[in-house]
Structure formats: structure tokens, C-alpha cells
Amino acid sequence: MRRLPTTGLWALLLAFALGSGPAAPAERVEFRLAYRVGATTTHRVVTETVGTMKFPDPIPEQKFTQRFEQDLVQKCVRVAPDGGAVVEVRMARVAMRMTVGSLRVDFDSAAFDPASPSGDPRSDALGKLLVPLTELTWTITLDAAGQPTRIEGLAQAFDKVIESIGTDGPLFARRTIEQLRSFFNDEAMAEQMRSCYRIAPGTGVRSPGDTWERAWEMKIPMFNLAVTGRGEYRFVGMEDIRGRRLARIRMSETARVTPGQKPPGPAGLPNAPSLFDQMEMTLEMGEGEGYALWDPASGELVQQRQTQRMTMRIGIRPDPRASDESLRRGLSGMEARLRTAVRVDLLGPDGQPVVPPLDTATRPR
Amino acid sequence: MVRQRILSRYLPTRPVLLAAGAWVALSGGLGVWAQSPPADRVDRLDWFLRQSARATELFNASRPDEALPILQQLSATCADLDDDGHVAITLADCLAALGRDAEARSAYEAVRAAHPELSARISEKVAELELAGPITDGLLNRLRETVRREPGNAGARWRLARALQKRAKILLDEAARAFQAVMASDPTVASLPAIAGYAANVQELADDLGAMIRRMEDRWGWARRPLLRLRECERDSDVDRTVWLGRFRAEWRTRLAEGTYHRVEIRLDEDTGEIGLAVEGKAIKLAPGQEAQVRRHIERIHALLDEAIQEVRTGPEPQP
């Protein structure tokens, strides 16, 4: 047999390695939404933020961390003839750990017992605020493409939470709470929810390399801001992970934040300013990068990772009529430079992620 | 098939082993990559953020010695991801908190070189680092010059004021020592009623100012512990105390000219750190300046208690 020249061997090896050999046919994948009445899924959504907060001089800059965890349980209660569905959603668990300089707040609804406070008044106060969220249930109507069209019950649920906090107190506080309540109406929440479902690839056949775009709008009325987002999503290919055949989808998103239209204040209260009326906020968001692992057979999001940078500036306009001295003086120029990671994991029956997260003890290559 | 034949033909030779190694490496790195990325940019960013948050949490818990190795590792492996300079600045802050001033200074200057947009922040941090060291004439002149150049810079004025009061403390200590030396050298002078105890009073002024500086730095932060303390009662183990003042209550019985008596009480709340003044049980609101005066006296009493308890603990056992 003739000996192949060494250079030839190298070229051949390189060609194989770089994939320029005989090309395999690209896999065409059908993305479906297989709703089943009674089927229940639980997703853990973790939002982790780190950065700095700069207050007006001479207050020193403070470092900030926050980890917010939610376990969201979705149960399909109805399947529509057109392929859409109605799902019931509840937040089974909520946990938050936050540090701002030496200030620390740590709360987990799974370990919280209102009857035996932890001894940390701030964490206990946060517990009283967040625990009612775990008692809420609301429904989302999804269309045949998996996009939410209607939210029901969330506004009433928020009413209950606000009632549990209590609406007593000075007029300023009452109006602030009433205004907060007015922000959480079902229509506004449907808009929020649509932005959360933007990663869903919909239905139909896709091939690796296919891209699609989504645009969304989201209002943040309490800060008088409107977010206009645009995302580009690319189906990278299929992967076998833990016995599941999953589609990897890459995403790249941009968001533009502009001043929004502040809604009118709630009726029934004298026209006193609330905290939100006095607040001024600007938000700059960097490009978001991420990926999702999607089960095209069941239409389930199995894992999602996304990171983003943002700069937020908040101030409180001086209010000469305010009874509180600090509000009379106002607060100028708090600036937060933050980096955020959002991690979504589908949980298995054992309460653990179906696809194990990256080992945090190991440095990635 | 072709690949198998080539590999079997060349397997015994050394270059082929290298080639095979390259094949495996490239297969793992590129070929299989499309199916199962071992660590892509998003995973790296996510890991970087997670580690950065962990280190920042440790720093905020006054554990810079534990935060430092995490930040050093991030700096060595993922500096390209630190586009806002948070990790590099926090690393320098850790060095400053640990008293490694020369390393901290060069770390701050490295951040300035890599992130010119952070120059103003770095200048503030370098100035804080200088404030933690000896208060020289050179430092005072530089701070005065900054205030003159930037009259609206509240941070610069704040640092100048702190430097001046630290210098005042040093001068008061020196004055007290000089008075003590005079009295020690001449017992006649020391016994004069107008002079007796004077050196002790000057020393008390110096100690009082020292306590005020400590209290302010403990609350507002400085290079060794740049953490804002939101409430007076929050205390960490790094504060130099052997006893904690849990509860404080002082009561006076005052007599007015017409002969009526009133009970006046000052109380420090253990949970909230707030100070309350009450006359015959009726709460009286203190102005912020008055509250600061009371707090300062409580602090001095606290120092006395601290000293007394130390003496009891280290002194000879009491006789039965």
C-alpha cells in the first residue's frame, strides 16, 4: 500500500475535524406544543445580579448582590380545539438573598414560619411581603403558537397581597399602595407575560441555522418607563442530554428604554403625590446573550441561560408638601451599574433540574 | 472507512500519534461542539457572574480574605468578561481592606489603565487609601488643592474634613503627652489646682475625638472597611470591643425652682439603636445634633465599661 504523505494526512485530518468532509443532511425538526390536561411542570427561575450602587457624595459607593428564586408550577387545565391551552400557574416557592454593603436580607418561603421569626427584622418583613405570593394562583390562556393571549386572576391575587400588607397609614403611603395596585392589572400582566414567552419557538418544522425574530413591548408604569425589545433567535441544532433530545436555541436581544405614559392615579383618594409620582428613573440595557434548551416534542423549556448589563439611575424629586423631611428634600442621583444572569431550569419529580446546571465548582474551559 | 485505514496504517508512527491527538482534540472542540458545547460564551458569562456575586457577597460580609482568591482567579482566567471593571475594582478593594496598600494602589492604577472611564472612581478610592495611612502635610495639601479646584465636589470636601480631624487627633495626643511630661518633671506644677488633671482632660479630648472618628468610619466606611452601616446598632466582629452595649438607660431626678421634681430618662433601644428621651414618661423628640451628643457620651461610657470589664477579666482573682 502506498504511504500517504504526512502533509496529506494532516490535511485530511483537519478536513474531517473542521467538518468539510461528506456533509450529513441537516436535521429537520418539528416543534410541537403537546398540551395534556392535568400535565404539570415546575420551572425554577433564578435571577442573580451583581454590581455597584453609587449614592450622592459623600456616601461611599456600595457593592450590591441579589439572588431571587421562584419555583413556578404550571398545570394544564384545558386544551382548546385549535391547539391552544389554559394553564393554571402558582409560585410554589420564592426566595431572596440580597446584600447592599453590610445590609443583608435573606429569605426563603420554604423555611419561613411567621410564627417563629428569624430574629432579623428585615428578613422577617420581607417574608411577610413575599409569602402571600406563594398562595396566589392565576391562569394564562395560550394560543396555538404557545403565546399568552390572556391572564386572569393575577390582579385579584395582587389585591389580596396588598390587603395582607395593609393599607393603613398616612395618605402618602395609602396612595403609593393604591397606585401600586393599579399597576398590576391583568392587561399589564399579560403584556409582561408575553415578553417572558418570547423565547418559545412556536410550532412548525425548523432546520439548524433557521432564525426568527420577536419584538415586544413592556411598560414599567411605576417608574414611568416603556421597554421596546427586539430579539433574534437561532436554532443551532439537536442535542441528546439525559435521555432527552433537545433543541439548542441561541438568542441575542436588545432593549430600548424610553419614558412611558404615567397612568392616572387611583380614584377615591385625594390628589396627594405618591412615591412613584416623585420618582425619576432612567434605565439603559446592554445586549442580552443567551441560549435555551427546548424539547420540541413536548413544547417545554428545559433550560435557559441569559446575561445582560444595565445601568439604572433613580432620583426622588423634592416635594415641598411632603410631611417626611427626606421626601421634602428629595434624593438625587443614585446610580446602579449591574450585571444580571437569568437561569431557568425545568425541575424533575425529585425537585432537581432535569438538565444539571454547570458545575459551579469547576471553571469552564 | 477511509479514515480507519489511514489510522491503522499510520498508528505505530509518532507523528500519527500526534495527529490522532490533534484529531481527538479538534473533534472534541469543534466536531462534537455542535451537539454538546462544554463551555460556551454564555456559560462562561454565567459562571463569571456567579463567582463575581459570591466574591462580592463575601466582601460585603467583611470577609475580604475569602473574596480575594476568587477574584484573583476570575481576573486570571476571565479578565475579558470584566468589561465594567467590577471584578478588578473589588479585587483592589479587598487588598485595601486587608491593609496591602502598595498592592491595592497598583491594582487601582491597573484598573484606571484598563478602564479610563472609571478614572474618577479610582481617584476617590486612591484618596481613601491615602486617608487610611499617615496624614502628611503633602496629603492635606493635595486634598485642599482638589477642593479648591472642584468646589462642588462634596466627596473631596468630606475627605479633607476627615483628614483634618485625624490630624487634630494626632496633635491633641501630642499635646496631652507634652502636658503629662511637664507635670511628671515638676511635682509642684502638677499639684497646682488649676493644672492638676489638665493633661488628663486634654487626653480625654483626644480620646473623645478618636472615638468620634472611629464611630464615623465604622458607620460611613473607609478603606479598611468600605461598607455603609445603615443602622447604628449593626455591629460586626471587626469593631475593637470586648463588650457590646446591649441596653443603656440613664435616669435623673431634676428639681425645678418651685420645688417640683421631674424624672428624666435617656434610653438606647437594643433592637433599633435609636435613642429616646422621656420626661415623666413622655417622649421628647431630639434634634439630630442633640441625638449625636447623647450618642457620643454613651460611646464614651461604653469605652469606660469596656476598660472596666477588661480589668476585671485580666486582674487578680477576688479574695473570698
Your description of this structure?
The complex is a heterodimer of chains A (365) and B (320). Chain A contains seven helices and 15 strands. Chain A is an alpha+beta fold. In chain A, the strands form two sheets. In chain A, strands 2, 3, 4, 5, 6, 7, 9, 10, 11, 12, 13, 14 and 15 form a 13-stranded antiparallel beta sheet that branches. A two-stranded antiparallel ribbon of chain A has the order 1-8. The longest helix of chain A has 13 residues, at 171-183. Chain A is globular and about 65 Å long. Mean pLDDT of chain A is 78; it is low at 1-23 and 359-365. Chain B is α+β, with helices and mostly antiparallel strands and 320 residues long. Chain B folds into three domains: 2-132, Serine Threonine Protein Phosphatase 5, Tetratricopeptide repeat (Alpha Horseshoe), CATH 1.25.40; 163-220; 248-313, no CATH class. In chain B, 62% of the residues lie in helices and 8% in strands. In chain B, helix 3 (41-60) packs antiparallel against helix 4, helix 4 (64-77) runs antiparallel to helix 5 (86-97) and helix 8 packs antiparallel against helix 9 (154-185). The N and C termini of chain B lie far apart (98 Å). At the A-B interface, helix 1, strand 2, strand 3, strand 10 and strand 13 of A face helix 1, helix 2, helix 3, helix 5 and helix 7 of B.
Structural class of chain A: alpha+beta
Classify the helix fraction of chain B into a percent range. 55-70%
Oligomer: heterodimer
- The radius of gyration of chain B is 31 Å
Task: Say how many strands of chain B there are.
Answer: 4
The tally of structural domains of chain B comes to 3
- Summarize model confidence as the mean pLDDT of chain B: 81
Mean pLDDT of chain A: 78
Structural class of chain B: alpha+beta
Topology as H/E string of chain B? HHHHHHHHHHHEEEEH
SS elements, strand count of chain A? 15
H-E string of chain A? HEEEEEHEEHHHEEEEHEEEHE
> In this structure, how is the largest beta sheet of chain B organized?
4 strands, antiparallel
CATH class division of the largest domain in chain B: Mainly Alpha
